[in-house]
Amino acid sequence: MSSDSHIVPVLAEGITDRAFRLYCFLALKTRGEWVTVQEVADACALTNHEARKPLSDLRRANMAESRRVYELGNHGRKTWHTRFRTVQDQMSGAAA
Question: Confidence class of residue 32 from pLDDT cuts 50, 70 and 90?
Answer without folding.
Answer: confident
